[in-house]
Amino acid sequence: MTENKKKSYKINRNFVIVLIIIIIIIAWGWFFKKEKERQRLEEKDKKQNRLKEVEERIGVLQPQKEKIERKEKQLLIVVRIIIGILFVIFNCLNFFYWTKDCKLGGILNFNWAILMGYSFIAFLRYGSINKFVEELKSKFAYQLRKNNFDSLEELEQLIKERDILNDELIKLETITSDDGKFLDL
Fold first, then answer.
1. Distances (CA, A) of 174 to 45, 161, 169
2. Radius of gyration of the chain (CA)
3. Count of domains in the chain?
């Protein structure tokens, strides 16, 4: 009988040791799950706070950018009007003072010569008229924006950062919701 008791004592002792190890592993897993969840929540809170700061700064810089763009459009319209007026003045000078020709063909020839000179310069310099016009617009816009270049560049960086933060927050939310489904049976 004593051998039976010793065997049963060894089995009970081994069973208790295995049970304690299993309980420790379960408690350890539960603790790390809670710790991981707490870290995710902290990270999510930090990113949400940073997102609020970025959006506030964007709210300050966006009206400045819109004001610059409005000014740019207004000045481009003024430049177009001035070019149109100069074109009409050259036509009138050609018609009244230089040729004294009342024929439409003379006016069209003069306009054609101006257009050909413009096209020739554009072709030699940039390869096409569209590239020439776009280059002139970009140089004009650069001259208008160079005083506010830092704030416009900061705005672009903040918009990129906002997009990245939004993507990361979405990933954190999906990971949190997925973890809950897999771990809670």
1. 15, 20, 9
2. 38
3. 1
DSSP string, 110-177: HHHHHHHHHHHHHHHHHSSHHHHHHHHHHHHHHHHHGGGHHHHHHHHHHHHHHHHHHHHHHHHHHHHH
pLDDT in tens, 101-145: 566 666 667 777 777 887 888 778 888 778 888 888 888 888 877
Distances (CA, A) of 9 to 3, 6, 15, 17: 10, 5, 10, 12
Measured between alpha carbons, how far is 91 from 101 in angstroms, rounded to an integer?
A: 11
Residue type for position 105: G
Q: How many CA atoms lie within 13 A of 8 on its CB side?
A: 5
pTM of the model: 0.57
Task: Find the domain containing 163 and state its range.
Answer: 2-183
Q: Residue 22, Cα to own-chain centre: how many angstroms?
A: 51
